[in-house]
């Protein structure tokens, strides 16, 4: 899920959006108008809290913001979908990414589409569920049960030349087509376990994305030099894959709330905007259920949900909101 937050005065606010917000008691639940307008904008300057403290909201300091906040894994399980929708309704999430390769995905798409101010992108999957295309047509991607290989096996096969690019392209198109058949245009792309940043995959993703008119692809450039190994590895992969995604918009920096160490609090997230540019902050809010425990029960989804619904974070990020694709 992601949204851009921009401060800087009334010149960035449309009269229609300002009017809508003035009619609403909760600026984050304002009437956004038709979905295809891809905009929900509010008025006023954004606020950010001092680092390492949680002062009263009235003491928050104004900071110009330009940041996207995304919730990944919509449709991974009913518990994850419930958490994402809660993070949208009560928190700062304005965009989400749908994973179409799990049984709970179609219902998740319908629930998300009922939220008029929630942008829905596509969370490409090559390492978790079952392919959207006929498994027999993508044998280099699947095991004998017709299920995607886990990440470690997929990566090993990818870098030893056992994954066929044509099959990758076929599966990416099938996932995009499935999302569209459920009413999700899927013009913003990212991926499960960041596999779209692996250079051999990125080449195929870039080609298919341009062919399908995709307008946003996530990069994973770290906003600072001192970072965790996982984040540094993602940033390195993103630098290589940037050429594959040339011509398609993406964030100038990226932070994964779930894997960030030490974990950020609301003040820390708000202050990320100081890095400048248009950044993306992604989280994985949700509730652990049986399906999630089988698929991916290790992530601290309850912690992400608590952070993304923190009232201080809502106050700090302000009310001037855009989607990834607008």
**N-to-C CA distance:** 14 Å
Q: Order of helices and strands, N to C?
A: EHEEEEHEHEHHEHEHEHEHHHE
Strand content: 5-15%
CATH architecture: Alpha-Beta Barrel
Number-wise, the strands total: 12
Q: Helical content, roughly?
A: 25-40%
CATH class, named Alpha Beta
The count of domains is 1
Molecular structure report:
Helix 5 (165-181) packs across helix 6. With 326 residues, this protein is α/β, with parallel strands linked by helices. The protein has one domain: TIM Barrel (Alpha-Beta Barrel), CATH 3.20.20.370. The model is unreliable at 1-64 (pLDDT under 50). The chain has helices at residues 15-22, 78-90, 105-113, 151-158, 165-181, 199-212, 229-241, 266-271, 290-296, 301-308, 311-317; strands at residues 4-6, 39-40, 47-48, 61-62, 66-74, 95-98, 119-124, 188-191, 216-217, 253-256, 279-283, 321-322.
Summarize the topology.
Blueprint lengths: L3 E3 L8 H8 L16 E2 L6 E2 L12 E2 L3 E9 L3 H13 L4 E4 L6 H9 L5 E6 L26 H8 L6 H17 L6 E4 L7 H14 L3 E2 L11 H13 L11 E4 L9 H6 L7 E5 L6 H7 L4 H8 L2 H7 L3 E2 L4
Parallel strand pairs: 5-6, 5-11, 6-7, 7-8, 8-9, 10-11
Antiparallel strand pairs: 1-5, 1-12, 2-12, 3-4
Helix pairs in contact: 2-10, 5-6
Give a short summary of the structure.
This protein is α/β, with parallel strands linked by helices. The protein has helices at 15-22, 78-90, 105-113, 151-158, 165-181, 199-212, 229-241, 266-271, 290-296, 301-308, 311-317, and strands at residues 4-6, 39-40, 47-48, 61-62, 66-74, 95-98, 119-124, 188-191, 216-217, 253-256, 279-283, 321-322.
């Amino acid at each position: 899920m992601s949204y851009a937050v921009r401060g800087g005065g009334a010149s960035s606010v449309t009269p229609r959006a300002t009017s809508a917000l003035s009619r609403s008691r909760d600026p984050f639940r304002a009437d956004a108008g038709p979905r295809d307008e891809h905009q929900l904008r509010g008025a006023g300057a954004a606020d950010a809290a001092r680092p390492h403290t949680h002062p009263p909201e009235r003491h928050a300091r104004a900071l110009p913001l330009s940041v996207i906040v995304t919730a990944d894994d919509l449709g991974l399980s009913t518990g994850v979908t419930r958490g994402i929708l809660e993070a949208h309704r009560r928190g700062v999430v304005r965009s989400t990414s749908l994973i179409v390769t799990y049984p709970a995905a179609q219902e998740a798409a319908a629930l998300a589409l009922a939220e008029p101010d929630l942008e829905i992108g596509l969370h490409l999957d090559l390492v978790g569920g079952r392919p959207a295309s006929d498994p027999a047509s993508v044998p280099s991607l699947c095991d004998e049960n017709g299920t995607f290989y886990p990440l470690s096996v997929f990566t090993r096969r990818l870098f030893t030349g056992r994954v066929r690019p044509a099959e990758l392209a076929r599966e990416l198109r099938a996932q995009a087509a499935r999302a569209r058949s459920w009413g999700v245009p899927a013009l913003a792309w990212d991926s499960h376990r960041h596999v779209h940043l692996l250079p051999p995959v990125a080449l195929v993703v870039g080609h298919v994305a341009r062919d399908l008119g995709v307008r946003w692809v996530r990069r994973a450039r770290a906003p600072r030099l001192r970072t965790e190994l996982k984040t540094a590895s993602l940033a390195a992969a993103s630098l290589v894959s940037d050429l594959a995604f040339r011509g398609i918009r993406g964030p100038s920096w990226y932070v994964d709330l779930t894997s960030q160490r030490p974990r950020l609090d609301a003040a820390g997230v708000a202050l990320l905007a100081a890095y400048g540019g248009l950044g993306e902050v992604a989280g994985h809010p949700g509730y652990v259920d049986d399906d999630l425990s089988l698929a991916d029960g290790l992530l601290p989804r309850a912690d992400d949900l608590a952070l993304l619904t923190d009232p201080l974070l809502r106050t700090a990020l302000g009310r001037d909101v855009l989607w990834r694709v607008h």
